Structure formats: C-alpha cells, structure tokens
Amino acid sequence: MELLSSLGDGFAVALTWQNLGLALLGCFLGTIMGALPGLGPSNGVAILIPLAFSLGLGATPALILLTSVYYGAMYGGRISSILLNIPGDEPAMMTCLDGYPMAQKGMAGEALAISGIASFVGSFLATWGLILLAPQLVKIALLFGPAEYFALFALAFMTLGGVSSTNQAKSAFAAALGLGLAMIGVDTQTGVPRFTFGEVHLYDGLDFLVAIVGLFALSEVFIFLEERHGAADAAGRKLTVGRLTPPAAMVKECTPTMLRSSFLGFLAGVLPGAGASLGSFISYSMEKRLVDRKGTFGKGDPRGVAAPEAGNNAAAGGALVPMLALGVPGSGTTAVLLAVLLSLNITPGPLLFANNPDVVWGLIAALFIANFMLLAMNIPMVGIFTRVLMIPPRILMPVVAMVSFVGIYGISGSSFDLLVMIGFGIMGWGLRKFDVPLVPIILGTLLGNAMENNLRRAITIDNGNWFTLIDSPLSIALWAIAILGFLLPVFVGRMVKMRMRQRGDAEGSVID
Amino acid sequence: MAFKAIRTALAVVGFGLVGTMAAAQENPECIAPANPGGGWDFTCRQVGKSLQDLGMIDKTMQVVNLAGGGGGVAYAEVVNKRNDSNDLIVAASSATATRLAQGAYPGNTMDQVRWVASVGADYGMIAVAANSPINTLPELLDMIKNDPASVSVAGGSAVGGWDHLKVLIAANAYGIDDVRTVKYVAFDGGGEAVTQLLAGSVQAFTGDISEAKGFVDSGDIKVIAVLAPERLEGEFNKFPTAKEQGVDALGANWRGFYAPKGMSDDAYNMWVEKIGKLYASPEWKETMAANGMAPLDLQGAAFEAFVAESVAQIQSISKEIGIIK
C-alpha cells in the first residue's frame, strides 16, 4: 500500500501541464531520433541536455523530458530497421532480421504495429519491475562477478547460430571478424594500445554506431548504386504496406513471446555490464530456439519482431535499476542520465529512494505516462511511417546517405569517423556479396571488449587459475545453458531434417 | 529541435574553425574530450550551467563531446585546428596530466595549450567492503606486502591510469619496493569497480571520493584512507588520511580547463576571471560539497605551474614502476 501511495505522489508530481508537455515533446523527438540511423538514445538524450538546462527545468521535469526521449528512441529504433533494413540504433539491430522480411512481404504495417505493441509490453512490464523489485534486483547484479559476466557473454556467442538461418560457418566467420575488430584500441588491462598504428583516433577503439551505420546504411546505398537505378525503381517497390493494425491472431500468437522476452530483456538491463543490445539479442535467439519449429524466423515471423522489441524496451527499463539504486549505469544512455542527475546535485545510490522520493517516484510515474503516450503516438503514426516505402529508392538512398554522414559527424565532430564509416560501408558491401550476415559482426564488436576484459579480470583476480570460470553455481548454470544452446540445434536440427527428407517434403530443403 | 541542436553545434564548430575574431565568449563552448556521462562531460556541463545561472554568460555553454584516445583526440584537435579560438575551453583533469606525462597523446605536450583554472579536486581514497576484516590502510598494505596475490584492488581507470597510480603511490610510500606486484584490476569506470567490491569479487577499491559517495552514505563500503594532506571538510571529516596512518601518500584528481595556445590574452584573462569568480561563488561551494569535491583554488599562471609540477611527478612515478622508460 505504501508503494501505491508513493506512486500516487509520483503521479501528482508528474501530472502537471508542463510535465505532460515535456513528456509529449520528449516522446516525439525520441521516436524521430531513434528512427534516424546514427542517432541513438544516448546521443538523443545528450543533445537535449542543453535544452533542459536553458529552459531552467528542475530535477523532476528535466528527468521527465530526458527519460521520455530515452524511451521514445527505444521505440523509434525499430522503424528504420523494419522499413529500410537499417537499424536506427544498436538494440534495434535484431529487429531487422524479421522486420525487414515482413516489410518485403507487404506486411510493413503489421510489423510496425506489432513491434510497437511489443515495445509497450516490454517497457510497461519493466517499469513495474523497477517499482516492485529495484532493491532486490540490485542483489542479482551483485551476483555477477567477472567470471559470471564472461559466462554470460559466452552464452550470447554460443547461441549465435540462432541469428541467421543461412550458413552457420559464415555467421561464425562474421562473429570472429567482429571480435577481431573489438581488439582495436588501448587494452585496459595492460594500458598498451593495440592495432592503433599510432593513430590517436583509434585509441578508444571503434565506435559501434559508426560501424552499424557503415555496415547497414552505407552498404545499402552502395548496393543500390551498383544496380541500374532505373531497373531498381521499376522492379522493386511494388510493395504493399499491409494493414495498419495487427490481426488479433497475430497479437495472440506473439503474447507469450513478448512476456518471455520482456523478462529476459529486463534481466539483461539490470546487469550493469550487459545492456539493451544483449537483451534484445538473447531474447531473439532464445525465442528462436523455443518456438521456431517451422524455421520461419528470419523470414518474416512476427514473433521474431516482437521478441527483440519487447526485449530491448524491457532492458531500457531494467537499466534504470542499477542507475537509480547503485549509481552505476547499465547502458550508454543511463550513463548520460546519471551525469544529468549529478549535475542536478542528486546523488544516485542506495539512499536515493529514501533521500529524493519525489524525484524517483515522479520519474517512475513519468515513465508510465511516456509509455502510454508512445503507444498512442506510434500506432496511428504507423500509417505515416510506412509512406517511406513509397519513396522511390533513387530519392530515398541519397537521403539515407546524407542522414548517415550528418548523423555520425554530428555525434563525434570528427572526419576520421566518417572515413571509418565509409570503410565499414565498403566492407558491408563486399560481405553482402558473399552472403555473410552482418549482425554477428556488430555483436562481436559490441560485446567482444567486455567479454575479453571480464575473462582477464577473472583470471587476474584468481592468480591465473582458469577454474575460477566455473567456480560458482551461477556461472556453471550459464555455461550449461550455453552448451545446451549450442549443441541442441545441431542434433535436433539434424533429426528434423531427416524426418522431412523421409516424408519427401519439398519444403524441408529450404532449411539451411 | 534535435536538428536545431545539431545545427547549432555544427555552426559553433564551424565558426571556431574559421577562427572568428568576434568578441570573446560570444558563443561559449566547452569541449568534453569524452562521451557524455563521464567526469569531463560533468565538468563542462556543471560549469556551463553554473556560469549561466550566475549570469556570467548570456548564452548556454555549448558542450561538444569530442571523445577518443582518452582525451588525445580533443587535445590534437585544439592544438592543430582550434588554436586561435577565443570562445573555447576544454575540460581536463589528472587523467589529462597522466596521459601527457606518459606520452599517451602522441606528439603533444602540455605547453601546446594554455591552462586556465581549476574548479576543485577530488581526493583519492582507498576503500574496502563494509564487512571486510581490514580496518586501516597499513593492514591492507601489510597483506599486499606479505602476499601480493591475496589482494585484488579494483579501479575505474586502465592500467597505468590515475586510479592505478594512486594505489601504487600509497604502496610505494609504505615501503613496498616492487610496486609492480600489486594486483590491480581495471574496470570500466569507478561505478563498476565499486559494484565488484560489493559483490566480493575484489578486496579493495581505489577511486575518487565522489565516485563512491552514494555507497559511503549508505554504509556499504568503508573508506580506510583518504589521500589528502589533511582531513576533508564536512561529512567526509570522519575518514582518516593516509598521512595520519603513517603512509605519506597524496593523490588529488583535480578538475579544470585548458584553452587554445593562440587564444588572445584578453580572452584568456576573461576566462580566468570568470572561472575564478565562479569558484568563489557560494553556489559552486554547494556543488562541490554535494559532490564530495575538495578545494583547489588555482587560476592562470599558478594553475599552469601546478599542472607542470603534477606532470613531472607522474612522469617520475611512471618511470619508477616501469610504465614509461
């Protein structure tokens, strides 16, 4: 009851015209920033900090504006993934896998709507999780030492087979390439620069946003340039948009997926070393393992859109738990929010709930408000977004190229990053020709560093004893899941194939 | 709005590039040489906000995040491209001095910019978990001395970085000759390192007071030594210094700003004066108190001399422990 009255106080704080207006503004801007390739939630929030300061906003209104942008960007990221096969930000990468095929099948409207609903379910449940479980969840975060984090990342990589339905060897190659790229930069465990060739821009490693925009957006532009533009206009783009609301059967089919993915995503968000990208990735690959009996994932299965979207939005909510309760950011965006809290003279940490209840509960109420606003805003806006598909590629592609360049330069202000982006674009173009999936490359770059560092931390702490990696029940459990996830599809997949062959099922040959 | 913000940011950068001769601080800009969310970003944003609140600048300070190379990208950018900008200051800290001292900004030295002023210091501290049997700094250092493998010290900076150096300074002062045996584990930022201390993965934490304030308040961690010349003011007064425990070790992570070398003297003096005034204001005192920052009141030439001295000190420690030759 105490909880409800605190929440009631929170709504009393949040429900002023000014705060509602800020939430609306934040949701709208966030959605747009999320949808633009290159501008993700963390940059979106950073860009609006000066606005919050120059409007002279107090702590609660400023946080309401910025968290609305955060949630909005998490919603918006899916739009360009589905419509253009270009992820708007890192966590939306997994949404490309089924979202784009759905759009190509003429189901763009359904894909956008179902992913909007999944986003809502994910963040709605995560916000409740934040309210009910924040203090207990902190204890979960404390169970994860370096060895456990390493096992978690190993789990992510071992279930990588779930990502692409094409050649497994090619996914493994792509992941290895990503891991290799992650090695670039100063090695924190020794302080020695690796593969930087004396170039100071490479000391901090490659920025994965630059890599994503290059690999996905620019390579798309290059492919388009290579084809005859006239032909592309005539042949492609006979796409229908589909209905703008998902049929009830689809929602029903996706509901268990959304619930499971919200849970997994939320957990990933709570762990400071994991984050939203890992959340959406694990949600997708687990869901594929669990329910993909017909091999439709990766070919436009609505559940393949619902899983990562519920997962990454739940992770966004989950990441607020360590930020508020520990003062430790669980993602890039929460690091920015944390800095804002500090500059508003609020010290996050174990005492935040006791010392600044108005800020915490006002923020939580604002999260609910933003969430409903985003749902209300996103479903009708589906119709507008899908118009993008009507734009002929000869106009759309130059716009994509321009937005990519401006976006990347806008974040870092460095022309070096533009060169790196072009390099990635060319690499993406080449790899697409060989049919190598691009997602594992990004996963490798995104998670490789954290994985390596945690391995080396664990080994250093235990003086070179490798058995430390399987020293706790939690890490043993994670390894068990990882090994099962790796081996099961090998055997089960073979059995399924054999059975299909026996039946002489022509469609069975489609698998692999 | 987003576009407007970017456009303004780009415009500011553009203006700077052509080296406009407009009056100083027309478009005040602060480069934070890291991604949003870190200490440098905080320094820029907090100082920008306070200057505006106090009415010392008319426009909002534009904070440009120019990450890369541990501040090296921003340093090179200022030296090579923004050398005559009058509107620009750049956030710096002990980490900047450390990297300059260790030659980690290839080809750059501290005399290629003008050092403006400090806005405070964050004294280093060494802490253990609340339930740890260790209660004093000598106890911890004895354990390290007898069996270096038994104690893992976590910190938020890379090996050779400031958090690492602080613990080595203390170990050195205690008479541990081969400080390279001290087991240091680098994490991504102080927050993650403290979390691992609470989780029991490591035995000790080295960082800045402000990084761990939340946990100190809640009683989750025990500060066994503050690396300050004397006890801090206010609520941090209860923590003993290393010095009073017989370990003569000091470690201050100062925060401040540098400006382009080619900045006009008028503009330089104006920045020095403004930040000096800000430092003296009661509002800034409050900000410092809330963030556990200790006084460090240096402007202009005095600050320049201070930075030079700290670069020299870090150089000699780094040589001693073999990080540089």
From TrEMBL, chain A:
<feature type="transmembrane region" description="Helical">
    <location>
        <begin position="324"/>
        <end position="347"/>
    </location>
</feature>
<keyword id="KW-0472">Membrane</keyword>
<feature type="transmembrane region" description="Helical">
    <location>
        <begin position="111"/>
        <end position="133"/>
    </location>
</feature>
<feature type="transmembrane region" description="Helical">
    <location>
        <begin position="263"/>
        <end position="284"/>
    </location>
</feature>
<feature type="transmembrane region" description="Helical">
    <location>
        <begin position="20"/>
        <end position="39"/>
    </location>
</feature>
<feature type="transmembrane region" description="Helical">
    <location>
        <begin position="359"/>
        <end position="384"/>
    </location>
</feature>
<keyword id="KW-1133">Transmembrane helix</keyword>
<feature type="transmembrane region" description="Helical">
    <location>
        <begin position="140"/>
        <end position="163"/>
    </location>
</feature>
<feature type="transmembrane region" description="Helical">
    <location>
        <begin position="169"/>
        <end position="186"/>
    </location>
</feature>
<dbReference type="InterPro" id="IPR002823">
    <property type="entry name" value="DUF112_TM"/>
</dbReference>
<keyword id="KW-0812">Transmembrane</keyword>
<feature type="transmembrane region" description="Helical">
    <location>
        <begin position="476"/>
        <end position="493"/>
    </location>
</feature>
<feature type="transmembrane region" description="Helical">
    <location>
        <begin position="46"/>
        <end position="71"/>
    </location>
</feature>
<feature type="domain" description="DUF112">
    <location>
        <begin position="20"/>
        <end position="443"/>
    </location>
</feature>
<protein>
    <submittedName>
        <fullName>Tripartite tricarboxylate transporter permease</fullName>
    </submittedName>
</protein>
<feature type="transmembrane region" description="Helical">
    <location>
        <begin position="396"/>
        <end position="429"/>
    </location>
</feature>
<feature type="transmembrane region" description="Helical">
    <location>
        <begin position="206"/>
        <end position="225"/>
    </location>
</feature>
<dbReference type="Pfam" id="PF01970">
    <property type="entry name" value="TctA"/>
</dbReference>
